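Submission checklist for the structure archive. All mandatory fields must be present; incomplete records are returned to the submitter.

[x] Identifier: CSC1/OSCA1-like N-terminal transmembrane domain-containing protein
[x] Organism: Camellia sinensis
[x] Residue count: 363
[x] Sequence attached
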Amino acid sequence: MDFSSFLTSLGTSCVIFVVLVLLFVWLSRKPGNAVVYYPNRILKGMDPFEGGSISRNPFAWIREALSSTEQDIINMSGVDSAVHFVFLTTVLGILVLSGVVLLPVLLPVSATDNSVQTNHTISNGTFNDLDKLAMGHIKAGSSRFWAFLLATYWVSFVAYYLLWKAYNHVSDLRAAALISPEVRAEKFAILVRDIPPPPDGQTRKEQVDSYFRTIYPDTFYRSMVVTDNKEVNKIWEELEGYKKKLAHAEAIYADSKKNGKPEGIRPTNKTGCLGLTGKKVDSIEYYNEKINELIPKLEAEQKVTLREKQQGSALVFFNSRLTAASAAQSLHAQMVDKWTVMDAPEPRQLIWTNLHKNFTKGK
């Protein structure tokens, strides 16, 4: 790459950055997007726009992110998020400490070696000033290569040291979370995966209950088996959609009583595609009928799901934090791909659709 190409690439990246910043500013100032761009401010009870969407600095989030403490991150997003940031800062520390020491040393070492001339290369005339900063600019067998060898040891030392500090810090965070007096549901639970098929005549829940009640007879509380809720969710979303439409129609009807005739004007809609075709019906009565149809259908599908669509994973609850912590670190079967147990994450950290995957797929 010659210098002009480098400048072109740099300029293109700057233009893309400016476009993305302008897009962020435009989207973040829309009130409807506040939950996307400023969720933590909303959770804290703060105004996401600091007195107005127009006056908010588009880079204010950087200041807030840098000023947030580790405890703030734990309170908002949990210990796993804090651990994630620990390793991000560790990677940044490795890059900074390596660059601060090596760039001022290695770049002059390469640039001042004049042993390789332009006409001695096989690069077809593409050799330029940027190439002089690379290690390839140094003559073979030169003592200057010792600088690059020492640089390798320096980067290794920095990486090992910072990772050692990070792992110690993460261990302290995990230990502090375990001994914290704050009561959280996940501290009394474990996540069990790779549950083998239940014996004949026994449901998955009965299998899990009997298995853990036998091992922990005094502290076992209950289990919650993961189920395939795809059909239930589909009916529930349809039901919620009709409830919202009913609330909207009732609001329109109530508003018509205030602004129009005392008896009001009942809203209507068509039952066909997108409400543009089909029979014209009273919206309130139509939505009530649909809701009354879907409620028993949802209840029936829930019973079928609990009976027939139980999957090979479950959350097991105990009445003792000590037992839960001990169970999460114990083997519960001779085979490693059966009855896999781990600490229960926070509910918001669970990806329910992945829990049924077995040990080999998870690895």
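[x] Structure attached
Curator remark: The mean pLDDT is 81. The longest strand covers residues 310-318.
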